Every structure is written in C-alpha cells, then in structure tokens.
Amino acid sequence: KNHEISNHSNEKRFKCTHCSYTTINRGHLDRHTRTHTGEKPYQCTECGFQCTQNVNLQQHMRKHTGEKPFLCLHCGYAFAQHSHLKQHGRLHTGERPYKCHLCNYRCITPAELKSHTAIHEEDKKYRCNICDYITIRPSSLTRHAKIHKKATSMK
Predict the structure, then answer these.
(1) pLDDT digits 0-9 by tens, 102-128
(2) CA atoms of 155 and 151, how far apart (whole Å)
(3) Does the model's pTM come out above 0.85?
(4) CB 3.0–4.6 Å: which of 42, 54, 133, 134 could bond 128 by disulfide?
C-alpha cells in the first residue's frame, strides 16, 4: 500500500526548499536539489570527472572503456550514447526535426540549427563574391572559394 501511495499517486509530495519544484518521487527531488547545491556525488576513478547522476557516470566511463553498446541497425555503426545513435539514425530516415524560424533550413541536431541561425546575423556573414554562398566562418569561405578556383582552372 505504501508503494502504491508513493509511486502511483499524482500528488506531488516532495517540494524543493530552494525553488517551486515539486515531485512525487524523493529520488527526483534529491537529484533536482543538486542543481542548487552543486553537489556531484559520482566520481570517475580514472580521471576524477564528477557528476550529479550515476547514469551520467556510467555514460562517461564508456570514454575510458571504449564500450559502444548502441548499434545502428541500418549500417552497423556503434555509439557510446543512445542520443548519438538516435541522431545518426536520422541520416538513414531523412528526418530533420529542427527547423530554422527564419528560412526553410532543416537539420538533424539542435547544435546544427544553432550554428545555422548565426548566418542570419548580418554582422557575422562571410559572402562569396562569385555566388550566393554565405557562412559564419571565414575558414568555410576560404574552403568554398577553392571550388571556384578549381572550376576556372579546368576551363
């Protein structure tokens, strides 16, 4: 009966003393409280890395062991993190869930979208003087310019 009350009730009985967060699970409250206290009770024995959750430590340990338990069923590529497998899978499915709100650009990861949206900031654009290529990185423009040099040398 206590299990039923504590685990299957929608009543949020555990309240954070630092903010308005509430939860039905004591463990969730303990984990949340660490965001306020900075406590990182899980530590890597190899390099000293510290984190707030055991699952993060387990994930971190794969850097040392080389374990890659998440396998792509399409191509066999292996990953240490499930989230990386999920992102990789989008290469096979064509799914591009992240969309720029300023143009039609779509991409696979939030990081790609963040990088892309910077091209809409006028002061950070590097433009090709031959075509309509635009980038936020001068090194990318230099690499792009080689395409035009190659094309003119082939004529």
Answers:
(1) 999 999 999 999 988 888 876 767 889
(2) 7
(3) no
(4) 133
